[in-house]
Amino acid sequence: MPRDTRSITATDIMPLGEYESIRADKKQEAILRKTLTRIAVGPNASAMFETWDSMWLQIQEMLRIEKGGEAQIPDELAAYNPMVPKGSELTATLLFEVPDPVRRDAFLRTIGDIEEHIAIQVGGEVIRARPEGDVERTRESDGKASAVHFLHFDFTPSSIAAWKSGEGQAMLVINHPAYGHAALIGAEARSYLARECF
Known about the structure:
By secondary structure, this protein is α+β, with helices and mostly antiparallel strands.
């Protein structure tokens, strides 16, 4: 698997039978990875930092579920490859989770344009989120935000150096008027993401 190319290709995808033979191990790896890459941001949001491995697993799982075979592979690559970190960025899936559907709907209507209020702070630098450009994440008709956001954080060389140094605090910050919360990104997570993403 040429992970250093920062892209997943059709040649990286395993046939379903082969994947089934290692699936349990890969799922266990994913559980361990999430202990480093998933953080809660306030009571209703959690962010999952993505890696080559997390996106590869997502593609394999989609192929397993939908059973579209080789014909399905190009669509899955097109969907998930943009979220593979390209060497000077972190990518994250941000989920807003409110169990009750009525309360969830009401909550999402209060946080329109939240994608414009998300950033990583490290070493005195602020790296603002850039939403993945596939679809609008806030509905124009009523200002309702999506429950799922796909985000890129474009680092400069100095912010990469600050991240890798391990010094100071690294935080994921949401500063929307209706939802203001921050979460510390721990030292282990910083080290792991530095290796996997930069």
